[in-house]
Amino acid sequence: MSLKGKTLFITGASRGIGLAIALRAARDGANIAIAAKTETPHPKLPGTIHTAAAEIEAAGGRALALVVDVRAEAAVKDAIDRTATHFGGIDIVVNNASAISLTRVADTDMRRFDLMHQVNTRGTFLVSKCAIPHLAKAANPHILMMSPPLDMAEKWFAPHTAYTMAKFGMSMVVLGLAGELRPQGIAVNALWPRTTIATAAIRNLLGGEEIMRRSRRPDILAEAACRIFAKPAKSFSGQFLIDDTFLAGEGVADFAPYRVTPDGPLAPDFFVPDHIEAPPGVTVPPREAR
Description:
By secondary structure, the protein is α/β, with parallel strands linked by helices. It is 41% helix and 12% strand. Helix 2 links the parallel strand 2 (31-36) and strand 3. Strands 3-2-1-4-5-6-7 form a 7-stranded parallel β-sheet, with helices on both faces. Helix 3 (73-87) runs parallel beside helix 4 (110-135), helix 4 runs parallel beside helix 6 (161-181) and helix 9 (219-229) packs across helix 10. The longest helix has 26 residues, at 110-135. The chain is built from 10 helices and 7 strands.
């Protein structure tokens, strides 16, 4: 199913994974609300809501650039209402905005703890809450969280308890909201990458250019997301999906085009449960605790 004419509200869409999803949808002719904080260029991070809007329109979509801090309730509600008014409704919400700090408990500044929980868990809850009345009017409404399966293993918590709590908080919203909204026919799902994804955050926090070379491009998540949006919302909900496993189930057999470099070992991401095996022909070592 094409996303032509569908309206997507994407948080954190000025760069990285959020922008990749926006551009993939734009190629179908979708309308994209870019809900992000970056209005002026950042010294270390590429892209603003305005550069993203230009890319989206060049790709064939329609764009609405909105300055939104997902921690601010009034700003979120206003942005969602403006999107619905501007495009005539909202069909899809992508909760992509996220804050990260890979620190142990003793080394975690409480301001950073609060930021991660306010952006990741609370922001996801708030955006989803405000969008429900608009999604309820859509023909095939979806909410998608860029968050991991709820795999309660010690190895995911011990190295960075605060970050894990905040990301799993997003997934707990999926679990609860999927059940709450199923009677209304609104799908709520989660999508997560098996490998690290080549974004500025990965470069800056996880190992520079070396980890980038061992990563996949954000396009793999963009393709998976848009295939999720094509699923019937009334029957496809409450799913915690790993990108390549889901795409393999959709008939994708060649994952080489998504790699940053053609060879060498791929870097595993956090939070991928051991029991979710990679597709045939894909080898990714398990991520162990640090």
